[in-house]
Amino acid sequence: MTDQTPRTLEFADNRVIAEIIGAHSRNLADIERAFEIEVAHRGNILTLIGPQDATAKAEAAINALETRLTKGRPIEPGDVAAAIRFAREGEPKAAPKSTPATPKSGHKPVEIHTRKRVIEPRSPRQATYMESLQNETLTFGIGPAGTGKSYLAVAAGVAAFMEKRVDRIILSRPAVEAGERLGFLPGDLKEKIDPYLRPLYDALQDTIGGDQVTKFMESGVFEVAPLAFMRGRTLSNAFVVLDEAQNCTRMQMKMFLTRLGENSQMAVTGDPTQVDLPRGETSGLQEAVDILDGIPDANIIRFTDSDVVRHPMVARIVRAYDQLEATRRDRNDRR
Prior knowledge:
The protein contains eleven helices and eleven strands. By secondary structure, the chain is α/β, with parallel strands linked by helices. Strands 8-7-9-10-6-11 form a six-stranded parallel sheet, sandwiched between helices. It has a three-stranded antiparallel sheet with strand order 1-3-2. Strands 4-5 form a two-stranded antiparallel sheet. It starts with 6 loop residues before the first strand and ends with a helix.
């Protein structure tokens, strides 16, 4: 018989328990649903009722939210889901090849400090990724949309710049999109290319502020440019990010990776399932992770749909497409 001994959590500060409960008990409802337990609230006491393992994980999630509040940080959208993820994966499943399920430091918080905000991981794999971005020479972040790959890479670059570990930040993307060609778009070259680079500008502005971004862009300290502009350069004393790398050809990827100069770090992000290259063209991202897996000072972090931190619907969409692809592969294998 499953042990259902209730767990009682008492809070000294009524404001803390009110924040944990959330408006209309929304946070408690999320915790109940995630761990399939019941949470009773009376005064400054929460009682967790359910299987022992489930209530233990729910308690860990609640404690994480309390710790956040005691640091003076409010519970923002997504923080409850993050606490649930960490509590649920306390005993991680086998992780994909090359990707530890938890950071080397265990569940010790990994943070990226930028001018505008402190960024905390919202899944164990995000924590591993953030740790790699701070410590490794080359980090690959690959996986579905909504897992924070690009945003965290840019934030890590901003943090490295603010801490004076690098002198500049260089952000790049291949200018390739399905069904569109730059030559048919209006405007000069910059006006044609800027829409493809906009997500990188947005990440910079969110972490350091629009006025500062403009200042550093004008001085050349921050650079956002198409991948083709990297050819022939040596990128020294820089934090370099290549985003949407699944749209690099094999030669473009080799060209980019060999730009790495002294005292520099590189982050390469992409989703191998969203390749916009012409049919028959091999993605340089997939080839790179295959041949560089296991080399010193390089780390490959493979995200899954369980790491999606956007709207919950994004995770469901990713999962549905993955299932469709698996069905198609199964049909092809039977032929």
